[in-house]
């Protein structure tokens, strides 16, 4: 992998003094390098960029050109990607709790895969997007994450099988499992633990 793009604290101060704040500084080349690095070591994985992390059009276009898929969390993000020529097949609606109008927008965009973490969400999906493909989001414990979203989202591992069966009974296609180890996770063991939990569930 090529040398990483890095800004020192002095660089940050100089740029802020010169351009004012807030200020976004990015390296499109670093984005390309990161994507290619992931594809090199996970060649069978369809990488999905989470638009909510940074929806800047230059990032989206760069990743689109590299063949990336996208993780969307709102109808606004879906419409943004559509305007850039990204199809629903390249998106996964990853918000475990979705408003009905968001699901309807996703259906109109041609999104095939959705995330859920509860029985009421499965029932809502069955009513609003019959036959859709769903993934159950599994709750993972990672107290080291800067922002631990598992306090808010995810089904307990013990409840996952019953949710998968309910989804199938409701006429939804069960596509698999999903997890989130929290934002800014700095240790690989959080991911390894999540994969082990999912393997046991499989």
Structural class: alpha/beta
Number of strands: 6
| Main sheet summary | 6 strands, parallel
Poorly predicted runs of 5 or more residues: none
Estimate percent helicity: 40-55%
What percentage of the residues does DSSP assign to strands (E)? 5-15%
Distance between the termini: 34 Å
Radius of gyration of CA atoms, rounded to a whole number: 19 Å
> Would you tell me the overall average pLDDT?
91
Which descriptor suits the 3D outline? Answer: globular
Query: Based on the structure, what is the oligomeric state of the protein chains?
Result: single chain
Compressed to H and E, one letter per element, the order equals HHEHEHEHEHEHEH
* Strand order in space, largest sheet: 1-2-3-4-5-6
Number of contiguous helices: 8
What does this entry look like structurally?
By secondary structure, the protein is of the alpha/beta class. The protein has helices at about 10-20, 30-40, 55-65, 75-85, 100-110, 120-130, 155-170, 190-200; strands at about 50, 70, 90-95, 115, 135-140, 175-180. It has a six-stranded parallel sheet with strand order 1-2-3-4-5-6, with helices on one face. β5 (about 135-140), α7 and β6 form a beta-alpha-beta unit. α4 (about 75-85) runs parallel beside α5. The protein is globular, with a radius of gyration of 19 Å.
Topology:
Blueprint: H1 9-19, H2 28-41, E1 48-50, H3 57-66, E2 69-72, H4 75-83, E3 91-93, H5 100-109, E4 113-116, H6 119-128, E5 133-138, H7 157-169, E6 173-179, H8 189-201
Parallel strand pairs: 1-2, 2-3, 3-4, 4-5, 5-6
């Amino acid at each position: 992998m090529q040398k990483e793009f890095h800004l020192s604290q002095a660089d940050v101060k100089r740029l802020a003094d010169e351009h004012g704040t807030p200020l976004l500084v990015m390296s499109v080349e670093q984005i390309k390098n990161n994507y290619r690095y992931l594809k090199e070591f996970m060649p069978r994985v369809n990488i999905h960029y989470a638009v909510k992390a940074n929806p800047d059009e230059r990032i989206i276009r760069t990743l689109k050109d590299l063949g990336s898929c996208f993780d969307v969390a709102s109808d606004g993000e879906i419409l943004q990607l559509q305007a850039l020529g990204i199809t629903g097949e390249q998106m996964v609606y990853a918000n475990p709790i979705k408003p009905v109008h968001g699901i309807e927008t996703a259906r109109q965009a041609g999104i095939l895969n959705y995330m859920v973490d509860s029985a009421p969400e499965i029932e809502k999906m069955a009513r609003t997007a019959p036959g859709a493909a769903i993934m159950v989001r599994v709750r993972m414990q990672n107290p080291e994450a800067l922002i631990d979203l598992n306090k808010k989202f995810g089904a307990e591992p013990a409840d996952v099988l019953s949710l998968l069966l309910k989804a199938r009974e409701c006429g939804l296609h069960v596509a698999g499992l999903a997890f989130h180890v929290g934002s800014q996770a700095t240790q690989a063991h959080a991911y390894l633990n999540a994969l082990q939990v999912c393997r046991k569930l499989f």
